[in-house]
């Protein structure tokens, strides 16, 4: 990749990451980069967003609550 293209890519990812933080998505830079790459490969962004939401919801529901942790011997 030529230096100008690499710089543009990096700047685009930086901007997308700042927007992601403003929107409080909880996505880190690496995950965001993968999601952008998947969209670039032609995956449907709306379907991808639905998968991310579902995985986030499943992960948060499977985490123990603080009260459950306090009852563990």
UniProtKB/TrEMBL annotation:
It comes from the Eukaryota. The keyword Cytoplasm applies. It is found in: Cytoplasm, Cytoskeleton, Microtubule organizing center. Keywords: Cytoplasm, Cytoskeleton. Its main location: cytoplasm. It holds the Pfam family MOZART1. InterPro entries: MZT1. PANTHER family: MITOTIC-SPINDLE ORGANIZING PROTEIN 1. Belongs to the MOZART1 family. This is Mitotic-spindle organizing protein 1B. The lineage of its organism: Eukaryota, Viridiplantae, Streptophyta, Embryophyta, Tracheophyta.
